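[stage:ingest] chain + small molecule (adenosine monophosphate)
[stage:ingest] validated
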Amino acid sequence: MSFNTLGLSEALLKAISKKGYTTPSPIQLKAIPPILEGKDILASAQTGTGKTAGFTLPLLHILSENPKEKFRPIRALVLTPTRELAAQVYANVKEYGEFLDIRSAVIFGGVNQNPQVATMRQGIDVLVATPGRLLDLINQNYISLKRVEILVLDEADRMLDMGFLRDIERIIKMMPVKRQNLMFSATFSQDIKKLAHGILNHPVHVEATPENTTVEAISQKVYRVAKGLKTDLIIKLISDGNWKQVLVFTRTKHGANKLCEKMAKAGIKAAAIHGNKSQGARTKALGGFKSGNISVLVATDIAARGLDIPLLPHVINFELPNISEDYVHRIGRTGRAGASGEAISLVSADETAFLRDIEKLVGMKIPIEIMEGFEPDPNASTEPEKRQQRGGGNRSRNNDSHTNTRKNNSSRRPKRNSDRRRNDRKL
Ligand code: AMP
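[stage:predict] done
[stage:export] tokens:
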């Protein structure tokens, strides 16, 4: 199968070929034709499946086919949960649209709004945005969504997790009712299904990987280990394996910083990426990781979401997530675009219940190993350690505590713009 048969314009095929893609990924094969027909889409796709091109290519095709006006109203809006993802999607829009007369822009919080406002004033066709900054600029009358023809909700599940439901609803009310809607999500909770039902019009369902199953190319392994020996074990694994590109997940920002310090002492080049880091620090860490100057990137779930790191060979869960779906997101960072990858989890006694939940979700027993000298503590309690609870007493995430404890419940949402801006900065 090649891109030539999908109905995309010559200008787009040229850009695809410049990117070096030869065959469309499964999600691209399934999503591009119905989007070109103008249909709504509900796509189940993790990061790493090529989903961004899956919606960007047909979106650009549609926009470039229709006549443009002298003053360009925003005709396509892509909403993303995080700044990193927004920046990445925007980079893709630029690349794929290189040979088209399409103007695009990206806006997100945590940086000065003035350059963003100046770009918007020139008139743009495609806007990529995080919900908080978008609403801020709409409230200041810099942006109108009255002419939007295509709405993309990227990583919709994460947007709900981060408490953006009310923002999304407000944004949607500002758009014409008649528009094309494309919704992408890695997982499908009841909340996501409800959101999809409210937004999408007879959507075509598209699936890249079966719901909540892990990508086959990824080999998964668990090391049972005493809690106090995790740091030494991870340093041994990375040093002995001479691994040069490892993404490590920790549950807390503090944990990420601490682990980085220990690694640095052991001579491993590591950097942390989480909500307390400035945008500049995060961009620098990611750049260093991509270029090979940094071998280990230690991240919390929120910060890692949407990072575009091609062909990542190793993902390590320093702690298991207490939301099982996060495990699927995390290991989805490896084995990307057909390459093989390895996902390792360091599991102490108190994480036994989390492991059981994850195995239930992915529908398989994950092979267990014990490294000599790093044995689990036979006397340690299997009682789950106290992690922050989400409403209803369920086990819950608290990995990036400021943002994740925010609820979808609108009554708990911050109401003022300044609150939202503050929160946007934390992501
Ligand atoms: P995404 O899931 O959109 O984050 O894309 C994951 C990675 O796959 C990115 O690095 C893309 O550049 C790459 N990619 C997307 N489509 C293709 C394709 N058809 N062939 C090869 N790589 C691709």
